[in-house]
Amino acid sequence: QSPEDVYFSPESRYVREFMYDAATNGNFMAVVGESGSGKSTLREDLIERLREGGDGVVIIEPYTLSMTGGRDGKPMVARHIAEAIIATLAPGTTIPRSQEVRDRRLHQILKESNRAGMRHVLIVEEAHDLNAHTLKCLKRFWELKDGMKRLLSIILIGQTELMDRLGSTQSDVREVVQRCVPVRLEPIKKPAEFLEHRFSRAEADIHCVFEDEALEALRDKLMVARDRSGHGVYMGYPLAISNYATAAMNLAASMGERLVTADVVRQVRV
């Protein structure tokens, strides 16, 4: 509901500052993470921060509601991005049908806005669905300048497939790979601290709900795909932690338990 509600681990705080630096200094970056890792929350936090901080940064967000990279979907293309930039910076402007005229108009609008003291950041969600051609075009958008001053920062936000795309050595995306800096959102190392923060925002004490052993068991529950030696993949992302904690509280209540115990957590199925 507010920036104060957001829990920042040392790792997510680093990504937060990286995003802010990119937005205000003309950089090109990608935020990559698993589903439920907090990517959209960081995007919302960045927008709040830019709007309230008086940084003079215009936020441009192409709509991705009906766009997908699937076989039957309609992927985002460079034209959609150009239209989003023009519509944001010059509302009501007729968008030229000719690509040449549209591109010239877009560049001119960006330069006029820049000379009026504004900076611009393009934020693209679901960027893992972008095709190779659109990724290459993003590099050209990023290279638009007024003299030596870059006119557009770009922040891509996507799931782990995007990291694979940006780690490719294939010629069709090499130009983008060399310029876009990917940053991965890591899981929360201490889920108990995350839950303590969430409880405190609701003016509640987590220790009146969870036993200490239950919080340790919850972290263990977030370890998946274990091998025979017990090693696995830790999936301690905000959504997963919240889902397990909620399920554990509901299960404890249905069992008539006064507190969530480690045994209750071990019985949770999400």
Describe this structure in words.
By secondary structure, the chain is of the alpha/beta class. Helix content is 47%, strand content 12%. The protein is built from eleven helices and nine strands. It has a five-stranded parallel β-sheet, with helices on both faces. Strands 4-5 form a two-stranded antiparallel ribbon. Strand 4 (145-146) and strand 5 form a beta hairpin. Helix 1 (10-25) crosses helix 2 (39-53) and helix 3 crosses helix 4 (99-115). The radius of gyration is 22 Å and the shape is elongated. The relative contact order is 0.15.
Task: Describe the structure concisely.
This protein is of the alpha/beta class. It has helices spanning 10-25, 39-53, 78-89, 99-115, 132-142, 160-166, 174-177, 191-201, 212-221, 238-255, 262-267, and strands at residues 28-32, 57-60, 119-124, 145-146, 149-150, 153-158, 181-184, 223-224, 233-234. It is elongated, with a radius of gyration of 22 Å.
Please indicate the percent range of residues in DSSP E strands (runs of 2 or more): 5-15%
- What is the N-to-C order of secondary-structure elements (H for helix, E for strand)? HEHEHHEHEEEHHEHHEEHH
Structural class: alpha/beta
Number of strand elements: 9
N/C terminus separation? 25 Å
Based on Cα principal axes, name the global outline: elongated
